[in-house]
Request: fold
Amino acid sequence: MACKLKSKFVGSFEIMKPPAKATNPQVVWSRVPRAFEIHMPINLKGVKCYHSQPDELGGPSDEIVEPIVVDGEERFEVEEILAECMHHRRRQVLVKWAGFDLLSATWEPIPNIPMMVIQRFRGCFTARLGC
Reply:
């Protein structure tokens, strides 16, 4: 996903006690899932108080989805495939990930997605078109 499309603020995350060697009072250490790829410590300028938004207003759930570890790699569960397209001569699918809101859907190359999930999407899609 393009950086400009990513949320600037996500959370909520637990603030941890800094390591004994830490001396800078302008930074905090937070317990963040690895998938966010955030480097610690975080400057206080980049931290805000978290206020959840109700689901009926389009807010994401407050649950933090933890990845599943398969063969030593972190992965997330595919909830649904929303679309399929050709991009730079490669087929891609728009994936809605289980536990994430619709705005977190990402375009993924077909080899990254289990084939049975792709086939289920294609079968449902052709059934909707009446093919």
Summary: The longest strand covers residues 78-87. Strands lie at 14-16, 27-31, 42-43, 68-70, 73-75, 78-87, 90-97, 106-109.
